[in-house]
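Exercise 7 asks you to align residues with tokens for two separate proteins.
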Amino acid sequence: MEQHSEAREEGLERGRRRGLSPLTFALLAAAVGFLCIVPSIILPIFFQAGVSVQQQQCIGNLKRLAAAHLIYATDYNDRLPPAGSWMDALAQYEPDELAYACPVQRRVEPQSFGYGFNRELSGAEVGKLSQPDQTPLAFDSSDVRRNASGGLELLPSPGRHRNGRENNVVYADGRTAPLPRD
């Protein structure tokens, strides 16, 4: 105990000779501690923010695809495109190829797309959909090929977003929502 006390006094004495007070030492120690702790708090937040940015980009892509579907329908007697060529049919309404690709899927497989079209809506008349707010139009898909179509059985498992817990869906009314993956 006496050695610790002597070492402390010796350190303080060296500091005084250099013109540093005990308060300066305390402030310096607090600053070093702060600089060590803050990154451990901030870095996970930045990591999570990156994931949510990709999810927001995915949601934005799905909204763009919904808009393209609805514009297509106005040009084709209120009918949605055929399921087997929906991306090709929408190309003039949404020419950006990146809009057809979920950014999370694109990171894994750069040449993949990652969205599917609800096959049941192939050629459907938009005005006659009974519940457009509950009818999936396009969604994250495990079939990552161009013009992928099918039903919600194509949702990736685990999900693409929120640490595998969710997939994104855009409904026929243009509303997007995350869909929890069980």
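Second protein for Exercise 7:
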Amino acid sequence: MSSAFLKITNMSKGVLNYKKPAFWIIVAAIAAGIVIGVCFLTDSPGTALTKWDTDTVSMKKVMSDVNSLSVKYMNKEVTCNEADMNRFIATMDKIKVGRRPLSKSRNEGRSKVFSITVNGHVKLNFNDKFDEIWVDNGVKPSFSYRIKNPSVAEELLLDYNFTAKTDWGKIDMASLRSKYPEYFDLSTFKGLEVYVWQLAPSSYSFGLMPGTNRDKEFDELLKMKGASFEEMRAILSAYDVDEENISVIPWMHPVSSYIAEYWIREIDEDQSSFEKRQREYVDRIRRMLFSNDQNGGFELPNFLTDIKTTLAYANWAGGGMMRDCLNGEKMIISSVRHLPVYKLDTTEDLDRFKENYKDILTFDQGYGEVPSFNEVAASYDDRFFKDHTVILAYIEASSGSYRYAVQDISYGDRALCLNAVQTNHPEVGTTDMAGWFVIAEVLDSDIANITEFDATLQ
């Protein structure tokens, strides 16, 4: 026989003589496979943030010698004192971070609503849900990693009590992201474009798009949701983009019949003057979005307490309430929405006010449960005005379903501001345009030294 035949014969005998392994060996092999599979499918419990090594930075090394620490939220930054710094470090040690990156992206435009800066240059960036983190050492941003216990990170940052140290925290970023998802996580490679349009003299809406080298299509612009300036300021704070890389672009929305001053060229106005006013308009918009001065222009530490307030229907005036108001110089673009305000301290003032605006307002008609102005003013006679003054502000609204009230009246040595607030937020409203008076009756003795009057909608 040939040697090849013998080899094949021996192999065949080996196959025929094969014996199954013992049962316990099979079970052990299956168990080992399951354990290995689970190990590959699951992540570790996480590494303490202070001992975590990213793909670019060793936090263990950074945290071994901390000499400064600051916390940033919504573009506002506070440097921690020594006690806060020690507390932060102790709590940071409890935050657990996953070892594997969520993605390979190093995009610097990633969400970073909260951030902690260590030693002035290593920045730990948290998203608004506190479940993702990435680190920027000023040289090369890291990948994004999963925070295993986001509640600990949230407690650490929110417990720092930003609202007590500043006037932050009024906008919930998680709700904002849910309301305007299309305005978050945009590419910032070519900057950002902020579009602004007006629905009334003091009503500004904002939309956001990534920067491009082309003009946006009309359909793209029409799909933008109108965010308030406070909301847009908060949205922009989630991006790490220099202000000069954010363009502000006025737009005339087709649903609005109001024409903003940006688009109006006065008779006999030369081109250079017109372009200068357009630049000033854009500059004021930029101050709304990027300026830190949000106090409305007055430092008013005191509040009037002995006041009676009410709401009266006035009808839509279409911007016609500006001509005789006491704060006309503030009826420009501002980070605070100013309202036309008036002071009536005699029956003659009351009669003159009604005469001046009888052609554009409705004084003798109410709206639903809201009384007419004449009903409210029925008690404003000479005896009332002997020791009282009426301060009223006019609010234009895009729906008759909205309601307003006087929140408070603040004052200083010579200035007074009536602060109004919207009291309801209906999901569905009427489509009619409406106007309202928020009215406060104050004692003459309380405003004897006041020479400057203002009103705002908070």
